[in-house]
Amino acid sequence: MKIFCVGRNYADHAKELGNAVPEEPVIFMKPKSALLQTHTPFYYPEFSNELHYELELVLQISKNGRYIPEKHASKYYNQITVGIDFTARDVQAELKKKGLPWEKAKAWDNSAIAGKWLPLTPEMLKNPIHFSLLNNKKTVQKGDSSDMIFSFDYLVSHISNYFSLNIGDMVFTGTPAGVGECVVGDVLEGFFENEKMFEVEIK
Ligand code: MG
Question: Strand 55-61 vs strand 118-119: parallel, antiparallel, or unpaired?
Fold first, then answer.
């Protein structure tokens, strides 16, 4: 199983971190070991002093493929949820300054959370999808899929030009504006529309 992540897929978020809006998708990966398993506690990483949440819509790949045309891409994913791309922002800032890869900031053990999966229907894709993150019961991030720079289909097609997609792979489709810091004791809850998909406490 591979975890693909998209960076800077919402213009407002690119701006809040001082990044240019990309002309093609920014893709990075997390290893399988980055996915927090159910009933496993989430521990604040000891190498960071600035842990950020990034709430994202996450797709699950349902069919193996490579070089998938955009017009056929919707046949290659059939489940959706929200998840967090946890980021050690201080580590990332250092790496970015030096022009180094991001893995130490984004791909460490348990740096990805995926909520429970919902079957994705064509009807669900006809309207914008709203999603949100609560920290200690207060809404801290709100997303709307219609604000994405690159659509689900475009992303799946684009990724498949570089990497084989396999059943069970995940695509974290980027975070909207509003990323922020979390600390030990915080309780994060991810919502897909009005449905709670996950809850995690930072330990
Ligand atoms: Mg992200």
Answer: unpaired
pTM of the model: 0.96
pLDDT tens, position by position, 105-125: 999 999 999 999 999 998 899
DSSP 34: G
> What separation in Å is there between the alpha carbon of 80 and the centre of ligand 1?
16
Measured in Å, residue 135 CA sits from the centre of ligand 1 at: 17
What are the structural domains of the chain? 3-201 (3.90.850.10)
Q: Tokens at residue 91, please?
A: 């580590």
In the DSSP assignment, the letter for residue 97 is H
Ligand 1 centre to CA of 20 (Å) is 15
- Ligand 1 centre and the CA of 6: distance in Å? 6
- Confidence check: pLDDT of 187 > 80: yes
Q: Which of 154, 132, 119 is nearest to 9 (CA)?
A: 154
